[in-house]
């Protein structure tokens, strides 16, 4: 099944001095996608935005042509999987 993820004019504010400008980014195709970059480049921030652990501060994000906000948590989980490098638990 072909999947598509599309950011349009997207930006994510990390703090008052640092912004991740995603701009226009379109990812399409079957299979897996790898995101590679230097430490601090924004890879984790981008992934957290995809799974709605963070919000965009500008622009839009769509999955298979539908705005990410339109997906229930279950629908989103059917389309994306995010496995963090380390898990933290609070008891």
How does this structure look, described?
There is one protein chain. The protein is an alpha+beta fold. Helix content is 16%, strand content 36%. The protein has helices at residues 43-50, 73-79, and strands spanning 3-15, 18-29, 58-63, 66-67. The chain has a four-stranded antiparallel beta sheet, with helices on one face. Strand 3 (58-63) and strand 4 form a beta hairpin.
Widest sheet: strand ordering: 2-1-3-4
Mean pLDDT comes to: 86
Taking pLDDT < 50 over at least 5 consecutive residues as the criterion, the unreliable ranges are none
Structural class: alpha+beta
Cα Rg: 14 Å
- By DSSP (H or I, 4+ residues per run), the number of helices equals 2
Largest sheet: 4 strands, antiparallel
**How would you spell out the order of helices and strands?**
EEHEEH
Find the count of extended strands (DSSP E, 2+ residues). Answer: 4
Principal-axis shape equals: globular
Beta-strand residue percentage: 35-45%
What is the end-to-end distance? Answer: 39 Å
Helix content: 10-25%
Topology:
Elements: E1 3-15, E2 18-29, H1 43-50, E3 58-63, E4 66-67, H2 73-79
Antiparallel strand pairs: 1-2, 1-3, 3-4
Entry summary:
With 91 residues, this protein is α+β, with helices and mostly antiparallel strands.
What structural keywords apply?
16% helix; alpha+beta; 91 residues
